[in-house]
Structure formats: structure tokens, C-alpha cells
Amino acid sequence: MARVIVVGGGIGGLAAALAITRQGHRVVVLEREAAFAELGAGMQLAPNGIHALDRLGLGDRVRESAVHIDELRFMDGVTGRHVVSMPLTGAYRRRFGNPYVVAHRGDLYRLLLRACRARADIELRPGCRATGYRQDGRSATAVLDTGERVTGDALIGADGVHSAIRRQLVGDGPPRVAGITVFRSVIPMARVPERLRWNRVTWWAGPGRHFVHYPIGGGAYLNLAPSIENGVTEEFADVPVSAEQVLDAFTPLGAAARRLLALGADWRSWVLIDRDPVPGWTDGRVTLLGDAAHPMLHYAAQGACQSLEDAVFLGDLLACPPAEFGLRFRLYNVGRRERTARMQHIARESTKLWHPAGAAAVARNAMLSAFSATELHDRVAWMHGARDFGPAVEGTAPQGVAG
Ligand SMILES: Cc1cc2nc3c(=O)[nH]c(=O)nc-3n(C[C@H](O)[C@H](O)[C@H](O)COP(=O)(O)OP(=O)(O)OC[C@H]3O[C@@H](n4cnc5c(N)ncnc54)[C@H](O)[C@@H]3O)c2cc1C
Questions:
Q1: Index of the ligand 1 atom closest to the CA of residue 49
Q2: What's the pLDDT band for 381 if we cut at 50, 70, 90?
Q3: Is 169 helix (H, G, I), strand (E, B) or coil?
Q4: Each residue of 277-288: pLDDT tens digit?
């Protein structure tokens, strides 16, 4: 039995703790915050994310509590015209084996936390900020800002997009500021005109900006999330912004989209950040997971899903004695890097589809509206349909991974 140190108690870190203890190992989760908690509103989970939760024994609880979305609907935000819809019921659920849901972020987190707390072999240690790691071939140690050292047989950096473990392991500097601001507001569904109370994730696409909304809280609330490419270069998060500023930023959108935006209140804003994919995020008995390994823009709604996939894929590989952990970490890295890099790329590229203006937008609409439901399902199958979360790794010789 090994003792594994997980740095970071977010969705990825807790899922990793659950997946690894299922192999008979013990896990210590070091979280910098004084309490284990996750804020935020809605989080879309495609069938692949729910398959990962199924593997952790938590899928039923998510299916019970989340909103099951019927359709992804793409609107021309300027003209207000419907362009195309991808149905998420019948054929989609049969093909991908799970629904597409919107879960409350806090609910999902609490579910993972309760499952971790129920296990004697998971130790949750809040108030522990790691600054880096050491290793000696047989063990790995988290170095905390207090000077304390926490040693185990191996270490996983699941400490998010600003990961201290990544800073030492990959050394690729701060994340890339994408020059895009996203605004968020949650409004009671009762305030939304009845004809717009859709059980859908809806995009209103416009020039250099778009607006997404979807129901959360069992359908009692609508989550509003407009984004604008405004070239912002400084990182910021959770900054209050007035309703007038939000409406001003979305003037090019038509009346239908703006009427919904006008319902927003208590707006907060974030700048979007991500990183370029890297082939190697493993160093001996230290590896990265989730946003620490492959942070992506949220436009593919896959960041948390990929953290969950990482956890399950890595957990499966760790059915071995600690002496093999270095090799298994490399197999995990090789097994996950192409899929996650493709997600990072798709998430970045999505603005090319969503943000054109004028004739380019007309051409985009014509192209999208020609797709049948089956063709749309074909296009997302690699993302939403995954159940194994990477190529088969049995006997694979890892290549090009750091360490
Ligand atoms: C606006 C927005 C919308 C999103 N929507 C979706 C969506 O719909 N679907 C989806 O799948 N994904 C979505 N995502 C992405 C998703 O939120 C992330 O990919 C996911 O939360 C990553 O989980 P993680 O555990 O890897 O990292 P994090 O959630 O960042 O957790 C990292 C944890 O490590 C802790 N930590 C950090 N540094 C240290 C340190 N030095 N020492 C100890 N602890 C440390 C942090 O406090 C935190 O608890 C969205 C993201 C954004 C920004």
C-alpha cells in the first residue's frame, strides 16, 4: 500500500483521492484554503464526465440532482434567428450512455467531499499551501509555505491553473491571458419570459462576443454568461461590474438576446486564461492533474470533465506497488496528453465559429444549419462519448515525457 500526496483539493484533487484509494492506497489531500469548499453556479457535464463519476460511484447522485438538458441551441445573436440545435435526448443519450446535465458546482463538489470524508484512507488537510516538491527516487515530498514537508511515495499536483507544482515541474511561467472577459449573473427563472424558459444550453453568437445561458438549481434559476473579446491583458477574477457596463458591451446583439441580458443583476466578471498544451507533465514520482496539467478555456465545457477523466484514468493505472508509480505516471501522461491537448485547442478555436461578423456570420450560419442531428452527434462523439478516457496503455512505451 502506498501513501500518495495530492496537492489541491478541487474537483480534480478530490476525484483523484477517490480513484487512488479504490486501488488500496492511502491519500493525503493538501488544500491551501482554510476550508474545503467550491463556489460558483452551474457546471455543464457531458456524458464523458458522468461516466467518470459513475466509475467513482457518484453518477447516480449527479443524475438525480442535476438538470438534464434537452438541447444545445445555437442562435444568431444579432438577427435573433435560430441557426441549429443539437438534440441531447433519445439518440444522443442512447449513443453516449448518459445525459448531458448542468450540475450545481457546489453540489458536485460537496458530493466528492462527502465521499472523501467517508473514507478513513483519505486525509483532508486544509490550510496547507504547497510551494514546490522534492523527490529522491523512492519518495516525493510537498514543501509547504510554512516550511513543513509532507512526504509520501508519490505526489500529484492538482493545484489548478496557477499550480505551484507545475511552476517547478514544467516551468512555463504564468498562464496565457486570452483577452476575453466573461460576465456571470444568476437570475430566478420566474423573471424569465415564459417563451424563453428553455431546458437548453443556448448560445447567442455575435461579432467578437457571444452570450450563453442555461437553467441551474433544478430549473429554478437561469445562469447568464456573456463573453466578449476585448483584448484585456491583465488577469482578474470575480470583479463586480454594473448591469449598464454589461449591456453596453453587448450592444451589437439584437433585441431578443439583450432583453435576457437586461434581466441580469449582481454581475461579476473574470478574464479567461489558459495555457498551451505541453507533452510532458510528469517528473519521476510527481505528476499533474486537471487544470494544473492542461488548463483550457471553458468554451468546450470540458475542464472539470477532463479533471474527472484524469482521476479515473490515473486511478486505474495505480493498481501496482509504489516502485512502479514513476512508470505508471508516465503512462498516464502519455495516455491523456493528446485528448486533453485537443480539448484545449477546440476550446480556443470555438470563438472562430461563434464570433464572426457580417458575411462570415451568414456563411457560418449556412454551414451549421446544414448539419443533421446525427452529424452533430458524430462531431462531438470523440468528446462526449469517451468511456475509457485515453488510448489503451498496456504495453505502451512512453516517449517524450519529462523525467
Ligand atoms: C467560467 C468557467 C466556467 C466553467 N464551466 C465548466 C463547465 O461547464 N464544465 C466543465 O467541465 N468545466 C468547466 N469549467 C472548468 C472547470 O471549472 C475546471 O476545469 C475545474 O474546476 C478544474 O478542477 P481542478 O481540480 O483541476 O482545479 P481547481 O478547481 O482550480 O482546484 C485547484 C485546488 O487547488 C488549490 N490550490 C491551489 N494552489 C495550491 C497550493 N499551492 N497548495 C495547495 N492547494 C492549492 C485551490 O485552492 C483549489 O482548491 C469552467 C471554468 C470557468 C473558469
A1: 11
A2: very high
A3: helix
A4: 999 999 999 999
Q: Per the structure block, which three cell numbers stand in for 113?
A: 467531499
Please count the CA atoms within 13 angstroms of the CA of 45 that sit on its side-chain side: 33
CATH class of the domain defined by 3-174+275-384:
alpha beta
d(CA 331, CA 84): 40
pTM of this prediction? 0.95
Q: Are the beta carbons of 77 and 353 closer than 8 angstroms?
A: no
Residues 6+ apart with CB under 8 A from 163: 7, 8, 157, 288, 291, 292
What are the angstrom distances between the C-alpha of 263 and each of 36, 62, 182, 243, 360?
A: 33, 29, 17, 9, 30
Which of 5, 6, 11 to mutate for ligand 1's pocket (most ligand atoms within 8 Å of CB)? 11
Rg (CA), the chain: 21
Distance between CA atoms of 130 and 28, rounded to whole angstroms? Answer: 13
Q: Which amino acid is at 31?
A: E
- In the chain, the amino acid numbered 190 is A
Q: What's the average model confidence in pLDDT over 347-356?
A: 96
Residue 184 Cα: closest atom of ligand 1 = 1
Ligand 1 lined by 47 (C-beta under 6 Å):
no
Phi, psi of 237 (to 5 degrees): -150, 140
Q: Look up cell 511515495; give the residue.
A: 153
pLDDT at residue 227 in the model: 98
Model confidence pLDDT, tens digit, residues 205-250: 999 999 999 999 888 999 999 999 999 999 999 999 999 999 999 9
Decide: 216 in ligand 1 pocket, CB within 6 A: no
Per-residue pLDDT of 93-138, as tens digits, reads: 999 999 999 998 999 999 999 999 999 999 999 999 999 999 999 9
The span from the CA of 70 to the CA of 89, in Å, is 6
- Can you point out the beta strands (E) in 120-199? 122-125, 130-135, 140-144, 149-152, 154-157, 176-188
